[in-house]
Amino acid sequence: MIYTVTMNPSIDYIVEVEDFQTGILNRAKRTEVYPGGKGINVSRVLNRLSVPSTAFGFIGGFTGQYIETILQEEGVQTDFVVTEGLTRINIKLKSDEETEINGQGMEICEKDIDSFFQKIGQLQRGDVLVLAGSAPRNWSEDLYKKVGELADERGVNLVVDVSGPPLAQLLSYKPFFMKPNHHELGELFQREITNMEEAITCGKQVIEKGVEHLVVSMAEQGALYFNKDGVWKATVPKGKVKNSVGAGDSLVAGFIGTFVKTNDVLEAFRFGVASGSATAFSKDLCSRDSIEALLPKVQIGKL
Ligand SMILES: Nc1ncnc2c1ncn2[C@@H]1O[C@H](COP(=O)(O)OP(=O)(O)OP(=O)(O)O)[C@@H](O)[C@H]1O
Ligand SMILES: O=P(O)(O)OC[C@@]1(O)O[C@H](CO)[C@@H](O)[C@@H]1O
């Protein structure tokens, strides 16, 4: 079974404004609301691929309730810890450029943290645990360590899509799959990555540290897949970008969803990249049809 963890979910409030300007009243041309947060996006895309998953994490208030209602209506199984705070609202402003303002999120009390770990403690050998996105304000580094330790002890396949110090910390638990973008990969090595060659050098070092499968995404420039047998590059389809929010999460869902069905890593890589691009070219997250339409446009070659 696949479990996703969104420790800091959000409602994504999409606001489209023509010619946005600061310091004046702007009127929106279009507004939309979606359940958000990286793990939740992974669960929503998996569901579109007919791969079941359970969404874990913390929700609170009317915004949290909205997320749970929509996920359940879509058929995503949920097992959130309900807290006393209010789930954040993240603003995704679309004008000539995309601008995002993400809230800080709630603080989580000890009792709710314990309830969360009780759920993680019940996972079984071979389950997949996708840990994605930022953490609650008062989440200490020790708690990431605890997730890593529990996954390790229980033989759970850990999938990591986090950034900053937690990425380095979780690396020591030898995740089954990691998907940094090239900026996040650079952060891990305290350097800037500007091209494929630099990404390849750093990606190989991540595999040497014991990660089983690594995808480094570089938006429209392409993506790299690494395992102990080598490095592969995927071309990314060309198209008009409507929404890059959730493109990385869609890649994770497409990869994991295909891998659990087929056990074929290169097919999983191809499907993952097509899923990321299908989301980039859609208003919301990708659909199965939009992914399948792009599959022939993703070429994979061994480097
Ligand atoms: N401009 C684009 N054109 C085509 N595909 C894209 C574009 N941007 C993103 N993608 C697709 O989405 C995947 C993930 O994108 P990206 O490298 O931006 O990840 P990310 O930074 O984790 O994304 P996110 O915006 O969700 O945080 C890419 O591998 C690609 O398949
Ligand atoms: O603040 P975080 O947790 O880093 O990211 C949250 C977020 O930007 O990530 C998703 C897209 O990947 C959105 O649905 C959501 O608003």
Automatic annotation (TrEMBL):
Catalytic class of the enzyme: transferase
Domain of life: Bacteria
EC numbers for this chain: 2.7.1.144
Keyword Transferase set for record: yes
GO molecular function, one term: tagatose-6-phosphate kinase activity
UniProt similarity note: Belongs to the carbohydrate kinase pfkB family.
Role this protein plays: Catalyzes the ATP-dependent phosphorylation of fructose-l-phosphate to fructose-l,6-bisphosphate.
UniProt protein name: Tagatose-6-phosphate kinase
